[in-house]
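Request: Show me your protein:
***
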Amino acid sequence: MAGVDTTLAVDAIPLNVPTIVTVGWDTANETVFRATATSGTNSSNYTLTGVTRIKGSTGNLAEGLAVNCLNHEEYFNQYEDLITAAQEDATDAVATADAAANAALTINTTASSATPSPIITTSRNLYTITALAAAAELAVPTGTATNGMVLILRIKDNGTGRALTYNAIYRAIGVTLPTTTVISKTLYLGMIYNSADTKWDVIATAQEA
């Protein structure tokens, strides 16, 4: 193939035009052109016409230079594997993010305990007491607490109000710690771990009306 003004002499012509062709693919002469038409009747006079350079080498292509030529379908298909890989990577990233979000919340439940010890394993933890049947002193959580870890307690008695007390590791910040349940009503306590003071700072309470 050789470049002459706005034409390219070729051994074969693409079936569809306008088209995009790549001359010298994967060589120092790689250049992308747009061709709007063709002419010729056989390999000795086939020509791409209406040729304009899109990108690539700005040098002249010597007449008779043997180069690769991809029609528009082949040109885009060369990137198919890259595009597929990128799509797969994006899908994997979304799946990983979803899995991480779901794994970040750990839920543990007990029916009743006089010394309930909330289980903490991830950055967000929900510990539920579903039918408290005795006065309870909230014990130190089970697990390794890290700075900023969140713990939410959800407590409901078994139809009788129960007294609540707290280990010294629990510290009220801007709230008052509930001292009893309300019969058959749900109580929430929200807290965050403060590693500087080695305290679970209770920053929110909410009682079902």
